[in-house]
């Protein structure tokens, strides 16, 4: 009997060891069992409800979790990876469906609208919260109290929150910021050339006027010394490829006045669109003027083009999400450790819609734009909510997040306080201290701002953004003047608001305004 | 077997096929018509009754009508070019030439590739910084061209890809038509002393007319759905310069999730296409066959 027990326990232990994701001898977690992840090293399994250790004690055999996620690799690959790990730990079957971005919205929305629990867990862009919050299960208190969740920075807790309820589970942090070639800005020869040509000092731009001036100067000649022409600015300009975010980044400086409360996209009181006011028009004029500094084809750059243009060393400056910066800092990149991060440029003149005049600022007004970001949520009608929340809790536990951050193609970017430690980026990825410091200072600085811009998180957000992008594209192509284009967009926005119902849009928009207007 | 028994017997055999036809062709169409009379979107799910509001709205939708005009230009332009090139290629390999089989297969390669993949390849070719198109043209002193970022050249770029991809289809049909032509009219033309040009215009082209009309109509139907190429190459830009009707409906339906309105756009587009293609078919018959019909 004793032998039998010993044999049984040995078998059980062996089975557990086989089923448990690989741990290094010190108990740290690594992904080497699941693919070509060995180079990313390991991370400690921090104790707590979401840890590997805690998950290994769960028994979800016979339970199946249906998950919808983006196509591989961005967010899709980590979904697959953590689904396999979760299965190995808990026994749960996790069926992941990968959908290209263009189809993701309707694949999530149609089951919601037809009351089918097609998916237990959804991964999607966080700005869709205005359309789908009614279909989402609030994150239970027990998960809001875990260490990983408590460490999520205020911006990304806000992004996950609708009213006073957290309905999205944070797995990523996104924002727009400026990236520039530090080696060129710090080069005395380049500084002298710029001074001679313009009479100004070459410095990292703090206004969009400076940005455009520098970009134009550094366009069309070989400032990198590699025998090829280089250019000043790479921006996301392709109409249906997130161009609206690039435009909002530029506009915020002119139209998000810290002294004016009650709405950036609309006047919350009247629900009149503000997108054709002089601040917005000025932002569009500056966007159009910047075209002179784009690389060839830069008028049709999607996000991927922008990433590779800046990340590949073709452009001096860029602004958007982390990807271009991460691409520039990849091992083997020709501009590794030659870049620096900075807040978005601002403006010393900001439109005040209350006084119908321009307010002047000594320090440029530069509102951080907390845009987009992948998020996750659990279907309110799911019968597997316990498993679903455990999966998300596991997906984003400290060890996984630490490793995921290092794998650029995963599309997961800093969203916890502990991610804003320069030493992490120096030790794990070999970044120079100055690069790592500029990166974490820029990102963490946005949490301290009390003049933030969030996405238009209201019902029908895709309709609003699609019409905005079309108007901007028409102006960029010269089909309409900036004022005509934005007047047209404002008319369409009014039509959309009236169709959805002004009260309904106002109620949703009040949540956005509450985030933007609250001080720090 | 009496007459009515025979009809019932025939009907029993036809019924499964008819039901399948109804299920796979008519049901989606009828459902789309029903959806087009609803205001189904992200906020109002399901099939409510919105009357003709979507149809009323589309009459004032400038972007839709512009896209339709643009589509007409692109479809007619590309199909005519495909016809001319396809006929030329078919005539080249119709008669005995060296490596005839090799060329026949080679000419078909573009058609056998996946449109989305080839559009990605062409986007790379047209890439104004990295693509070979400008490099190659630069060697002979031409360009650089703004292939995808200028309104006039972007539409030409989309048409180039369409012509490249679908000329083989035209080639295939016209070659099949040429190979099936009877030899006697050519013998008669030779006896009458007709040269190659006269033979082509007076014998080959008239004999090939039914195949030509069929090929042109099939390609026009397909070309009126240009979508993948636009999606990958330009996303309808710059501005709306290359936005076709199919792409616009995709944006309104799947991106903006205005299902009801996109259905109304689709049904209207379908009706316009049926009317336009019927007229075009009659015109083609008149041009190719003349008064003989």
Automatic annotation (TrEMBL), chain B:
Compartmental location: Cell membrane
Topology in the lipid bilayer: Multi-pass membrane protein
Gene3D superfamilies in alphabetical order: MalF N-terminal region-like (1.20.58.370), MetI-like (1.10.3720.10)
Listed transmembrane segments: 12-31, 71-93, 105-125, 145-164, 171-191, 197-218, 230-250, 262-285
InterPro entries linked to this entry: MalF_N (IPR035277), MetI-like (IPR000515), MetI-like_sf (IPR035906), Sugar_ABC_transporter (IPR052730)
Keywords: Membrane, Sugar transport, Transmembrane, Transmembrane helix, Transport
Segments forming domain ABC transmembrane type-1: 68-280
PROSITE patterns, A to Z: ABC_TM1
SUPFAM superfamilies to which the protein is assigned, alphabetical: MalF N-terminal region-like, MetI-like
Family: Belongs to the binding-protein-dependent transport system permease family.
Protein's name according to its UniProt entry: Multiple sugar transport system permease protein
Native source species: Kaistia dalseonensis
């Amino acid at each position: 009997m004793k032998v039998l027990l010993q044999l049984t326990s040995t078998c059980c232990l062996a089975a557990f060891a086989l089923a448990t994701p690989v741990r290094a001898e010190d108990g740290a977690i690594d992904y080497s069992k699941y693919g070509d992840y060995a180079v990313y090293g390991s991370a400690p399994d921090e104790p707590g409800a979401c840890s590997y250790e805690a998950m290994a004690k769960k028994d979800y055999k016979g339970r199946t979790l249906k998950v919808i996620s983006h196509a591989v690799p961005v967010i899709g690959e980590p979904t697959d990876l953590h689904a396999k790990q979760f299965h190995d730990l808990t026994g749960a079957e996790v069926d992941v469906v990968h959908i290209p971005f263009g189809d993701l919205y309707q694949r999530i929305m149609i089951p919601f609208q037809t009351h089918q629990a097609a998916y237990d867990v959804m991964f999607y862009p966080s700005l869709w919260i205005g359309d789908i919050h009614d279909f989402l299960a609030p994150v239970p208190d027990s998960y809001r109290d875990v260490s990983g969740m408590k460490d999520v920075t205020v911006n990304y807790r806000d992004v996950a929150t609708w009213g006073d309820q957290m309905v999205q589970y944070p797995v990523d942090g996104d924002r727009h910021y400026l990236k520039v070639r530090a080696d060129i800005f710090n080069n005395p020869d380049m500084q002298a050339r710029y001074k001679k040509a313009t009479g100004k000092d070459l410095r990292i731009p703090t206004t969009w006027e400076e940005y455009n001036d520098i970009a134009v100067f550094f366009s069309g000649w070989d400032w990198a010394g590699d025998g090829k022409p280089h250019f000043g600015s790479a921006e996301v300009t392709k109409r249906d490829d997130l161009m609206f975010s690039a435009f909002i980044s530029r506009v915020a400086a002119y139209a998000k006045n810290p002294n004016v409360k009650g709405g950036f996209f609309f006047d919350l009181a009247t629900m009149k669109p503000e997108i054709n006011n002089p601040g917005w028009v000025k932002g569009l004029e500056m966007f159009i003027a910047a075209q002179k500094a784009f690389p060839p084809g830069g008028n049709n750059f999607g996000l991927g083009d922008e990433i590779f243009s800046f990340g590949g060393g073709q452009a001096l400056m860029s602004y958007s999400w982390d990807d271009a910066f991460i691409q520039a800092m990849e091992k083997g990149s020709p501009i590794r450790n030659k870049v620096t991060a900075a807040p978005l440029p601002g403006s010393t003149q900001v439109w005040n819609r209350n006084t119908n005049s321009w307010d002047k600022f000594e320090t440029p007004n530069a509102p951080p734009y907390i845009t987009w970001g992948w998020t996750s949520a659990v279907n309110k009608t799911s019968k597997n909510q316990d498993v679903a929340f455990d999966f998300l809790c596991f997906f984003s536990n400290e060890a996984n997040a630490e490793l995921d951050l290092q794998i650029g193609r995963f599309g997961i970017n800093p969203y916890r306080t502990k991610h804003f430690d320069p030493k992490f980026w120096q030790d794990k990825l070999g970044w120079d201290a100055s690069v790592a410091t500029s990166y974490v200072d820029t990102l963490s600085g946005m949490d301290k701002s009390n003049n933030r811009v969030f996405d238009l998180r209201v019902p029908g957000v895709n309709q609003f953004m699609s019409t905005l992008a079309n108007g901007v594209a028409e102006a960029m192509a010269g089909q309409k003047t900036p004022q005509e284009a934005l007047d047209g967009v404002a008319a369409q926005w009014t039509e959309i608001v009236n169709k959805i119902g002004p009260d309904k849009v106002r109620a949703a928009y009040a949540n956005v305004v509450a985030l933007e207007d609250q001080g720090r | 077997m009496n007459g009515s028994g025979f009809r019932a017997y025939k009907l029993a055999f036809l019924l499964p096929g008819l039901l399948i036809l109804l299920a796979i062709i008519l049901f989606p169409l009828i459902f789309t018509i029903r959806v087009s009379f609803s205001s189904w979107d992200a906020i109002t799910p399901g099939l409510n009754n919105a009357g003709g509001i979507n149809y009323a709205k589309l009459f004032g939708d400038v972007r839709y009508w512009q896209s339709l005009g643009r589509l007409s230009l692109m479809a007619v332009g590309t199909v005519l070019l495909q016809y001319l090139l396809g006929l030329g290629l078919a005539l080249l390999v119709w008669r005995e030439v060296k490596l005839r089989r090799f060329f026949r297969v080679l000419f078909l390669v573009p058609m056998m590739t996946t449109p989305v993949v080839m559009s990605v390849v062409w986007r790379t070719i047209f890439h104004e910084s990295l693509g070979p198109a400008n490099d190659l043209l630069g060697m002979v002193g031409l360009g650089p061209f703004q292939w995808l970022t200028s309104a006039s050249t972007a539409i030409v770029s989309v048409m180039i890809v369409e012509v490249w991809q679908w000329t083989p289809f035209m080639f295939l049909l016209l070659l099949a038509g040429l190979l099936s032509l009877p030899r006697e009219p050519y013998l008669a033309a030779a006896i009458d002393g007709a040269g190659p040009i006269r033979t082509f215009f007076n014998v080959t082209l008239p004999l090939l007319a039914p195949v030509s009309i069929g090929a042109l109509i099939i390609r026009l139907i397909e070309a009126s759905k240009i979508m993948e190429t636009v999606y990958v190459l330009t996303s309808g830009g710059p501005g709306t310069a290359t936005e076709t009707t199919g792409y616009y409906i995709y944006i309104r339906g799947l991106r903006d999730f205005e299902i009801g309105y996109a259905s109304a756009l689709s049904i209207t587009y379908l009706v316009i296409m049926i009317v336009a293609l019927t007229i075009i078919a009659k015109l083609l018959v008149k041009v190719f066959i003349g008064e003989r019909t």
